[in-house]
Amino acid sequence: MSSLFRKPNVKIDDHAQKKFAVLSVSPDGSHLASASWDGSVGLWSLPDGALVAMMTGHGGVVNDVAFSSDGALLYSASADGTIRVWRVSEASETRQLVQHGFGVNKLLLGSGWLAYGAVDGGTRVIDPDSGEEIADLTLDRRPILSMATRPDGGEIAVGDGEGFVMTVSTESWSITGDYQAAGKGPVWALAYSGDGESLLAGGIDDAAYIWPAHNTLDAPIMATEERGFLRDPDAMSNGERQFRRKCSICHSLTDDGARRAGPHLGGLFGRPAGSVEGYRYSETVAGLGFDWNETTVDQLFDLGPDHFIPGSKMPMQVIAKPEDRADLIAFLKDNT
Questions:
Q1: C-alpha angle 106/209/116, rounded to 5°?
Q2: In angstroms, rounded to a whole number, what is the distance separating the alpha carbons of residues 73 and 83?
Q3: pLDDT tens digits for 38-94?
Q4: Interior CA angle at 322 toward 318 and 324, to 5°?
Q5: Bridge partners, 51 (sequence order)
Q6: What is the pLDDT of residues 186-219, one digit of tens each?
Q7: Which of 34, 178, 238, 303 is deepest in the core (most CB within 10 A)?
């Protein structure tokens, strides 16, 4: 796929304002699909990279896409809580397969099954044709942030926001391993090694790790060294805890020159929205026309970015308690 983007005749820049969450290549290599933060599902022909269609229908950020084994269908998962099915040959939606109620973050397709993980921790396996439930793997952890399939298809791994990894047999849909992958922080990414014996994972930490694929909850935590910017939450104020959990992955408090997914927050209060020089905003944010202040920051996290600024590249984040929002605002005022 890297050679595609090196070809001078591929006009990816035509869609540079879009923020792609995930790219997926069809099994026969004929198509590339994109999941976009503006709620669209892109379909591109390969190897020339020509845009076939930008398909719409989701009511929120599209978090994941995956092709069926024959490449005829494309499945998409969204923050609107649905999984939708698209016919590749017609670039059109065929049906809504799942209405989960909470945002769906990840999906996997296998032989006769589709597994998905959601914001509320829901982890389910369904028939990709009928939508009937095959297994409910939900544990009391949330959100589900990463999923991976073992190369032979016999097992899947699920990572969550509390730092745990669960492995599950796709033959019996029974749990084969369950352990805390790191002392703190979410498991954002998972991948099996080629032989299927090990799992690689990455998250908020400034390192990636590799473990045996199967472990138990009473096994030692694999990552024990205190690293980088990770600190004991009990040593923080509530406002700083809110920032570390909700904001620090994408934003720095000051203009430290480091690249992050979002603009820095230096001088935030009184700053016009969409005005940090050098950061490429979505068209929606660039044209908002208001300043960031106590009221607008509070509304952002009360409603969630997907409702307060529809079309924003900012992922869904809600801080439900008014006192938590107030503490975050006070922390930001003191530190930006």
A1: 10
A2: 13
A3: 899 999 999 898 999 999 999 999 999 999 999 999 999 999 999 999 999 999 999
A4: 75
A5: 44
A6: 899 999 999 998 899 888 766 778 888 877 655 5
A7: 34
Sole residue written with tokens 């498991």: 187
Q: Are the CB atoms for 96 and 108 separated by under 8 Å? A: no
Question: What does the alpha-carbon distance between residue 294 and residue 248 come to, in Å, rounded to a whole number?
Answer: 19
* Backbone φ and ψ of 124, nearest 5°: -130, 155
How far is residue 117's CA from residue 224's CA, in Å, rounded to a whole number? 27
Q: Please give the helix or strand (H or E) that residue 322 lies within, else none.
A: helix 322-335
**pLDDT of the residue at 186:** 86
For residue range 268-310, what is the model confidence (pLDDT) as tens digits?
A: 999 999 899 888 887 777 778 899 999 999 999 998 887 888 7
Contacts of residue 216, Cβ cutoff 8 Å, sequence gap at least 6: 177, 178, 179
**254 in Cβ contact with 267 (< 8 Å):** no
**What is the C-alpha to C-alpha distance for residues 12 and 225, in angstroms, rounded to an integer?**
41
Domains of the chain: 2-212 (2.130.10.10), 233-335 (1.10.760.10)
- How confident is the prediction for the chain on average, in pLDDT? 85
Rounded CA gap, 197 and 274, in Å?
Answer: 46
CA-CA-CA-CA dihedral for 261, 256, 277, 318, to nearest 10: 40
Dist. CA 264–CA 167, nearest whole Å: 37
Q: What is the pLDDT of residue 259?
A: 67
DSSP 111: T
Cα first-last separation, the chain: 40
Could you identify the residue written with the tokens 């994109």? 34
What Å distances lie between residue 39 and 93, 146, 297, 308, CA to CA? 14, 20, 23, 15
Please determine, for residue 8, whether its predicted confidence score (pLDDT) is greater than 50: no
